[in-house]
Fold:
Amino acid sequence: MTESTVFPDIHPEVFPDVWVHRNAQGLEIGSEVPTGVPSNAIAAFFAAVQVTWEIRETLWMLVLRDFKGRYRAQALGLFWSLAHPLVMMITTTIAFEYVLRVQIAFFPIFYLVGAIFWHFFTNAILAATGAMTDNGGLIKHTTFPRFLFPIAAVLSHLLHFGMELLLVFAFFFVFPDAYRFNFTLVALPLLVFLILLISIGVGLMVSVLHAKYRDLYYVVTSLITIGFWGTPILYSTAMAPAWLRPLLRLNPVGGVIEGARDIMMNGKWPNLEYLLPAFVTGVVVFVVGCLVFRKENLRVSDYV
Amino acid sequence: MTNVAIRASDVGKHFYRVHEKPMLLREAAMLFSGRRRRVDDLWAVRHVTFDLHEGETLGVLGPNGSGKSTLLTVVAGTAYPSEGTISTRGRISTLLSLGAGFHPDMTGEENIITSAGLLGIPVEEARRRMTSIVEFAELESVIDTQIRHYSSGMMARLGFAIAIHVSPNILVIDEVFAVGDIAFQTKCLDALRELKSRGITILFASQAPLMVAEFCSRALWLEGGTMKMLANATEVAEAYQVAMTGRTIGEEVAEALSHAV
Structure:
């Protein structure tokens, strides 16, 4: 075997003159002599955004792998994933509209809009909880940026959410009176972006903490059960007593749901009364998630 | 401009024994509430200092549990040092375990794309190198098969082929290709020599002093996580062999040959 035929077109790139220094405090990118102080959080954040953009194709492959993996084993695959919200919509409608006689107009759609956002949020953070521990091999043995594992988990549920959202639009043909479609629809992607931001924030945080504290999973599932009742899915915040409303408005997922209902069912712009608190808590959750991740990430490979 | 590629300055990595397994929140609460167990530090690696230049190959020798793998993960950046600083320059490719990142349900081809992506190679570039990777791994006949049907040797070949095709500046290898058959091992070593001649810096953990002597320019002997010896590869390999078996590499080879006769 002549050596030149082993792999003819592979040549190492020129060694860049950028140094990466790692110490117990974190990562520093710079010149040859380290200052000993890790790159600041804002620089690290923008570096992470840049990296994500550079390897978006690989991220997309991870997302698809998660997404396909969920349906591969099932003969009817996607059908089941859409059957679930439908079954929930029917049973909940029977219980609330016909048994409990709740007076909400177009309850099936009212419920479905709330439920798909809530399911996206909870499925995304549950998937993110296991993102580090499930990818232990990759985390220990490759240099792939780890923050992309929880993000891929969240994004794969976003695909699913997209299909459920189409389902909600499809119901226009069943209950045309439930909808008021107009130009306010342009605000809907912003709400999706807000809930994505919240999910990624929470996801980043729980993914690294779960590597260290394995019973966190049970804490997360319990909080989700509580959160279901603290989120306006089966009710709207306006129905709650006045003293409770400010508390409910701290829940950013609730604000997103109220906004989505106003847009789709009332043809109104989201009201700042609930959107502003939702936006502020959402951003806080995202920033806290990033900071927790930045700190815990340093030791995550010791635990997975 | 310097030509140092990896610089370890007093690198140490410790594990809390309490943290050896992931904690439960309950245990963390106990730690906080003052019922703190005595925390024993386990230094897997400590006081490791070296400079490795572009194109150099450092062999890391040491008995089981001497900290070789830990040192490699710290250099590769999958773990952070607990003290000291590890500084690197350029793209790092790792071969720390076989099949990390392989998905059993995907075909060999799909796995090449994903794995290369995980090592930092864009999809398009991975596609361009596909033929070369498959050829190198000698898996042309099964590349469309799900890799759950591959043997461990085939998996090893695929993993190795991908790792060397991502054109890294630094390659970190943890004695993994011992799995392949002898022909493939030889091929791997030839490939590594080729990479070396192209200026790639290689960090290579091994149990085999002969391989280190033959292949590396320098060697580091770790014992109990600290540096026992850092010198020219043949010197270290010889000293290590003598310390471990009481015989020099030459005697060992002669002995093996005499049995064969």
